[in-house]
């Protein structure tokens, strides 16, 4: 799975993140106080304005942290009842109808049907739940003002903080219930869509390739080959062995178990349901580095000219290599060896025979002594996941006579000492005794074909630990939608405290769109987008100038660019305050690609969600408290 912006470890991230958040909150609070003070000076004068601001802050601080949870949950229950009266169940009905007819439009013959189905249900759920949150949160308080029910509430001993937090909790509870229902329905929809079987006939579908009596042959000898019948738009290659076992090869990300039975001399096969369509792989990532042709260590490899610089490349038939260093490798965790999975990019300088794949070699290396062993020579295709297994024991023929070393800048002494070291030769080598040092081991990847290149990023090769529970991981995927929903509800409640219903809804929708396009927004704010800032882009649009052409050196051009620089500072502050909703798509991407969602990412995103919800709650409380109806 592609991870352009890997999520940092929670314990390393939380300290700087909290510090930056506190600095931003303090700055925004001071800005709000300055604006409030200016307004009070205008309307009440300097003395009364200063006293009013000081007393207001003191009373607000006291009320904010002395509210009743009982009254808060009463307000939440009221919000839930209002939401139910607004036909929330319609959203659930629409979702179920979409699932009923989705099978008509999803291609069962897709190369990755699990990814297709999972992406569909997560995207559908995201759109429906966020629209539900948008309508409920932005129209809740304005409808109370319009129907005058808010006056009944404020006459009770209910604080403004309890009204605001009650709305957020109540609408969040409704959204959570809808989301849980969608998650369960989606899982059964995806499972039933992917579940299928094939027909396999011994006489018609398998071709005998060995005429000898199978009992006289080794058990792993292939005696027949063929394909299953077509189902869900694909077939599986099948091999039958001398011991009677049958292997069904993986296709479209899954395989099948086969049971053989014999009745009246007629061999029959029962092909079971698909296996492995939905997975929850637990990857263990290592740190990547590159070795150039001169043997020096580099952070990146060769740039082959691709616009996307996510991967770096090494040339084939050279000493260049891609190196991953893994830690905490013990015999207890990997008693049977190291299960390796990789997705390598292949860059061809010439096509040659397009049907031929590019050859590669995988090595395991001692990071201290440089002892290295060749574990696999394999065929590689572009962006095709390949699973290999590094064994515990190695034959001496696999181990190189001399150590393979990596030169480091300003470290010639250790390199010269290692290069002169003679490694003892053994008949057999052990992975954990000879190659793992203090839990560390290196895996090297090289391209064998001349004038061809292998490319990779850090997450492209990993060790696969035991898989997690598929159903639990599928449900965890909805945490991303849930966190987006909470942030959007908080914005909707904030806008509803001082705007009318339609205006609050449009404002909340604007936050939603801007949050999904935050990267583009920041590019425009920092004047990094093609065409310049807003004024310059508008000038190019009117004058039909190309984005790559410099504008004429005129007063109007300089004036527009000056306004763009002023707007840049303003837009940059707004951009930093926007939530990045697209970051929460990480959950759906993990499930769609068959990976377990780690606890670390859940903690980071949960704290990020709270970092938006808490200030928005406080801002909504302050605004509602200062409205005339809430006094």
Q: Short summary of the structure?
A:
The protein is α+β, with helices and mostly antiparallel strands and 631 residues long.
β content, as a range? 15-25%
**Sheet bearing the most strands, described?**
6 strands, antiparallel
Work out the number of β strands: 20
Q: Termini distance?
A: 54 Å
Assign the structural class, choosing from mainly alpha, mainly beta, alpha/beta, alpha+beta, or little secondary structure.
alpha+beta
**Helix content class:** 40-55%
Radius of gyration: 31 Å
User: What would you call the shape?
Assistant: globular
Look at the structure and give the mean pLDDT.
84
- Uncertain runs: none
Number of helices: 18
Notable features of this structure?
6-stranded antiparallel β-sheet; 631 residues; 18% strand; 20 strands
Structure description:
This protein has helices spanning 10-44, 46-64, 69-85, 89-102, 113-147, 149-154, 160-194, 202-205, 412-419, 431-435, 470-476, 479-496, 501-516, 518-525, 534-543, 555-577, 586-592, 599-625, and strands spanning 206-208, 222-227, 237-241, 246-248, 255-263, 266-275, 282-285, 287-291, 297-298, 312-315, 321-326, 338-348, 358-365, 372-380, 384-390, 393-395, 428-430, 441-447, 452-456, 461-465. A hairpin with a 6-residue loop joins strand 13 and strand 14 (372-380). With 631 residues, the chain is α+β, with helices and mostly antiparallel strands. 47% of the residues lie in helices and 18% in strands. The radius of gyration is 31 Å and the shape is globular. The strands form five sheets. Strands 7, 10, 12, 15, 19 and 20 form a six-stranded antiparallel beta sheet that branches. A six-stranded antiparallel beta sheet has the order 9-8-11-18-13-14, with no helix packed on it.
């Amino acid at each position: 799975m592609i991870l352009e912006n890997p999520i940092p470890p929670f314990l390393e991230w939380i300290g700087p993140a909290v510090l930056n958040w506190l600095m931003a909150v303090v700055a925004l609070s001071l800005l709000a106080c300055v604006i409030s003070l200016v307004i009070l000076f205008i309307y009440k004068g300097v003395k009364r304005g200063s006293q009013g601001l000081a007393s207001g802050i003191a009373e607000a601080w006291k009320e904010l942290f002395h509210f009743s949870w009982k009254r808060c949950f009463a307000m939440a229950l009221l919000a839930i009842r209002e939401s139910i009266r607004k036909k929330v169940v319609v959203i659930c009905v629409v979702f179920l109808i979409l699932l009923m007819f989705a099978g008509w439009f999803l291609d069962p013959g897709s190369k990755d049907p699990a990814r297709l189905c999972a992406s569909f249900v997560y995207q559908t759920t995201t759109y429906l739940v966020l629209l539900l949150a948008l309508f409920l949160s932005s129209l809740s308080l304005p409808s109370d003002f319009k129907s005058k029910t808010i006056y009944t509430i404020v006459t009770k001993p209910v604080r403004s903080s309890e009204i605001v937090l009650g709305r957020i909790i109540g609408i969040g509870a409704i959204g959570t219930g809808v989301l849980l229902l969608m998650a369960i329905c989606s899982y059964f929809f995806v499972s039933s869509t992917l579940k299928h079987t094939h027909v396999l006939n011994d006489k018609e579908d398998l071709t005998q390739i060995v005429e000898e009596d199978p009992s006289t042959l080794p058990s792993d000898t292939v005696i027949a080959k063929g394909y299953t019948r077509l189902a869900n738009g694909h077939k599986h290659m099948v091999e039958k062995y001398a011991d009677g076992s049958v292997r069904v090869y993986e296709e479209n990300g899954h395989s099948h178990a086969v049971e053989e039975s014999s009745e009246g001399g007629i061999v029959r096969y029962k092909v079971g349901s698909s296996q492995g369509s939905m997975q929850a792989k637990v990857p263990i990532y290592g740190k990547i580095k590159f070795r150039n042709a001169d043997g020096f260590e580099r952070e990146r490899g060769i740039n082959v000219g691709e616009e996307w610089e996510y991967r770096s490349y090494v040339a084939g038939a050279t000493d260049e290599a891609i190196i991953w260093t893994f830690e905490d490798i013990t015999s207890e965790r990997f008693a049977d060896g190291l299960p390796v999975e990789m997705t390598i990019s292949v860059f061809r300088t010439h096509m040659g025979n397009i049907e031929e794949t590019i050859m590669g070699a995988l090595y395991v290396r001692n990071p201290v002594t440089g002892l290295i062993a060749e574990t696999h020579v394999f065929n590689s295709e572009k962006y095709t996941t390949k699973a290999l297994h590094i064994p515990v024991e190695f034959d001496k023929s696999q181990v190189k006579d001399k150590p393979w070393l990596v030169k480091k800048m300003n470290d010639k002494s250790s390199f010269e000492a290692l290069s002169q070291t003679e490694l003892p030769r053994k008949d057999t080598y052990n992975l954990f005794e000879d190659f793992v040092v203090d839990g560390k081991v290196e895996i090297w990847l090289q391209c064998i074909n001349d004038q061809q290149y292998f490319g990779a990023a850090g997450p492209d090769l990993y060790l696969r630990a035991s898989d997690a529970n598929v159903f639990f991981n599928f449900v965890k995927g909805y945490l991303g939608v849930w966190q987006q929903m909470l942030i959007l509800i908080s914005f909707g409640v904030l806008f509803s405290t001082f705007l009318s219903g339609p205006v609050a809804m449009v404002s909340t929708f604007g936050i939603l769109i801007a949050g999904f396009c935050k990267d583009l927004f920041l590019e425009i704010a920092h004047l990094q987008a093609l065409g310049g800032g807003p004024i310059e882009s508008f000038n190019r649009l009117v004058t039909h100038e190309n984005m790559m052409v410099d504008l004429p050196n005129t007063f109007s051009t300089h004036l527009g660019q000056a306004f763009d620089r002023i707007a840049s500072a303003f837009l940059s502050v707004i951009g930093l305050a926007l939530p990045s909703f697209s970051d929460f798509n990480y959950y759906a991407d993990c499930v769609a690609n068959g990976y377990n969602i780690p606890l670390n990412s859940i903690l980071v995103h949960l704290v990020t969600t709270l970092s938006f919800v808490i200030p928005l709650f406080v801002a909504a409380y302050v605004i509602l408290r200062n409205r005339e109806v809430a006094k």
